[in-house]
Structures
1.
Amino acid sequence: MFMSDNIYKRIANHVTRLFEEHPHPNLVYHNLTHTKSVVERAQEIAAHYELSEADTLTIYVAAWFHDVGHLYTDIEKHEEKSVELMREYIQKDPSANEKLIANIAACIMATKIPVHPQNLMEEILCDADSYHFGNKDFKTTNKEVKKEFALRGYGMLLQDWESNTIEMLKKHVFFTSYCKILLEEGKRKNIEWIKRKREKNTADNTHQNLFSPELDRTKAKKDRGNLRARGIQTVLRLTSANHFHLSEMADRKANILISVNSIIIGVILTVLVGKISDTPYLTIPVIILLASCLTTIIIAILSTRPKITEGIFIKEDVLNKKTNLLFFGNFYRSSLEEYQWAMSTLLGDTEYLYSTIVKDIHQIGVVLGRKYKLIRLAYTAFMIGLIVSVLAFFIAALLNYSHPGNVTKITTASGSPL
């Protein structure tokens, strides 16, 4: 049987080895210590109920694997990765069956927020995962979770941390009767503790503002800081707006060149080309005009032709503040979840946000420089081509009419000259 050969010990050794071989310094809370705690709590709760050996094994394996996904991916996707790693390992055992694997996977996925367990096994694992909400460990785990979020780039979640924690505890539900009886009172005390902590922090801030002898200087310094921040924001906003308007102007200039030269080419092809056989001395001027118009159109199109980028970014680029998340070309192929995480990281880091805006302005400026350079070249080509074409027409006509014998007389059907 699959449950023979000391499967419990083999599972524990395998998951422990995963944590040891893939150390993640940012996992202050979702680490091996937490995993072992959930395993112990799951066994404690399961022991209260008369479960079959298969159900007991299901809960045990799910408890060991439920957080290993944190070693490889982001918080939002760690349950799916945990299920994937569990399947890879369990399926190697020839006696494993799909029903057992599906039950383990369901238990792991039941811990995904918002939790919705569908049976007793899933309820046991959910309660084991949140067991600390109802005991004294919560004071320590709450600090660890906050620190981990900060290290992993989830700065937006840290704003008003105490109030968000209180709201989370109020919405939380223990599903098993065992945990309801054992832990509800402890959870209530933890809510009161975090409320007192929030009130103390508020009172300390108020006391400092009212009685600190540095109040005036601090306020003045804060006002100067706010003024400087508003000045920076204004400069960045105006610069971005100016670049946008310059880009619009460049596109309009390119469209004018394309439209005018297209009309000229259309007129030449429909009117003058048909007359070349009757006026061969105009061949060279017409070719020059066509060439200059075509050259101008090509250069104008190149100035407005967009450049396609890869459209993806990697997590390391965001954490190292190397990617510009404000430019669509850097993220259009990324998933919504990846972009939401990246933007929450960006918005939670003021330095990263400002540096990204500055980088975006610089990149737009580089594109504008290339665009205006090509448009200037297109206008120059059009101007020179027009001048040369007119001179060529004038010279051709002058040379032709200076030799009357070369004049070709064109008549209509009635015999009248054109």
2.
Amino acid sequence: MKKRALVLTGGGDCPGLNAVIRGIVKRAAQTEDWEVIGSIQSFDGILNEPTEIVELDEKAVSGIHFQGGTILGTTTKGGPFAWPIKENDGSWSFVDRSDEMIRKLKYLGIDAVISIGGDGSQRISQKLFEKGLNIIGVPKTIDNDLSSTDYTFGFQTAVQIATEAVDKLVTTAASHNRVIILEVMGRDAGWIALHSAIAGGAEVCLIPEVPYDINIISKVIKKRFKNGKGHVIIVVSEGARPKDGTVLSAESDEIGNENLKLGGIANKLLKDLKAAGCDADMRETVLGHLQRGGVPIAFDRILATEFGVKAMELAIDGTFGEMVAYHHPRIVSVPFLEAISKYNIIKTDSSLVHTARGIGMCLGD
């Protein structure tokens, strides 16, 4: 009787998810001992009644490596440790269904679970591993904010999308003598912002790791304009904040998704620049979920496939409680506790920051 691996994708969608799924299934097909099934919308597929699972064979994953999104669906809400329940009075409560889920997985004959997700997903993986579940993690986030891997798949595609946006905004900014502010994702890490700003030639880049001074930015803009002519591109991470200020965020009203919602910094920056005496014509663009969608670039397809193959090999070898990671030039695995121990932010003394300053880019300080 074949062993069974369950694959699921959790958290925000990301270019390259399907390539991971394909890598897992293709590697399993090289042995006669394993079969792969998928859970629809992360762990929800197991917890839902009726159960929502699908068979994943080579035919099911044929050609999906260049498709965006995930054929299994994903969710950022709830989970086995905080399943939302609507009470009779209309209020919501949360219950721990992890033990129930583990029993159900045993009933389904699952020998290994491969969870593809970001920091939050891998924290859930660690808790499930502590409960005795045979689980393996695959890091997924466009934010590149997991410190135990050199890169996460999806990040380079997000950077490419953001860079193309900068390229397009440069031409319209130059045509109209404008300042254009581009807001990109990244939460508390400025990787997408700084990479795309350097690649696209932006004059200003604001990241969470370097609190900015609005007056310094205003001076840079004024210096770029002569007789009302000139243009400036500002790339700002959604988690950027002014000195002595706070990150612009709002409480989420989505049941089961209590994470703070970041966004709106581009609009705030525009208003603050005007208040600081900057009279240039200014516009804002929020790139938003465009960064998550579409076809993954070759780098992310390859990295995702490598992660999928490695994850399946960990299952074959019986190595659980670990997350796949990229330590150039090798694909390795690290314990969950190491993977979630530290947030991956840009170090202000890094070569990337040094390069940005070296080409005269203003970081707002």
3.
Amino acid sequence: MLTPETRNRDFPTLQDMVYLNTAAEGIPPRCVREALLQYGADKQTGMDGREPHFRELEAAKALVAEFYGLTAAEVAICSCASEAFNLAALALQLQPGDEVVVNNLDFPAGVTPWLQSSCRATVRVWRSVDGALRVEDLVGLLSPRTRLVTASLVSFFNGFVLPLGETVAAVRRHSPALVAVDVTQALGRIPLDLADADLIISSSHKWILATHGGGLVGVPHRVADRWTVPAGGWFHLQDAFGAERFERAVSQPGAPSFAVGMPNFAAVYAIRAALEYLRGVGVAQIHAAAQPLVEQCRRELQGLPIEMLTPANEPLAGILAFRHPRAAEIHQYLHQRNIHLMSHAGRLRIALHGYNTADDVQTLLRELRTALKQV
């Protein structure tokens, strides 16, 4: 995807390390740093900075919409994916007897709003089998009481890729539920087809290579009335300063209701720059360049004395994961050799993006084999 020259120019820190942890933190290209500097310059003009701030916001929303397959009017940017899910819980206003389906491969942000004592719905767990979610197992959890099915398109835990079309079709056949999709581990890494999703959420500091501080929300117009957040604030209200402002508050319907306050403009600048960079490179090109590395890495990992958590015969995006009883020591060994991946509770996770190379994979595998012999 990148030539050695453009890789060194756009990602200079990668010259000195093997970075395989984009699923936790992406490495921004230089243009994101330049965008943040521009934000600082605009902010220093005081109120006059608002004009370029809002231009950046509109440009960022248009780019998010392009990646999601929506219009800019169907997109909002809040502070993070966790905030977006909590606002979604407010919007649904679940009642006793309602049911929500979550799954055990999902990140806490998409699961825990429904597990709080304040949530009055019953939560059902769609459980994975051999590291994969089977749609036939979901069907048995669906009923006329199901209000929401929420899942990640790519699991942070093991890289499983949800068959979204098949999942949505099953939900539509067996319940009136909405389908929320977290694309945090997919956006910017694989081509997306989200046409059937009812709510789309992503963070901004991983595969899209921007900064913290952004929750990218997509709500199609067809379900805007079902995703209207009844929160206090001002930016998202229909008439925050009108004559009746002390008598009632009415949210704008759909995506705008998720933008409850002043935008995090620094993050907005970064998001705009990062998505423009990815659009210029091409997500399809990123996927085509990185996918052979992921497949090669999975094949070779399967021959090592580890417990693979990533399913053997399922489609992949950028994540591979395995477990080892000495994971912490393996992680320390690799980190000392400037090989960066994620370690948590005995699980090691590898994440390969478009800026990774065949040399990165070979270095990882060579050093991992050595580490497995020594621990």
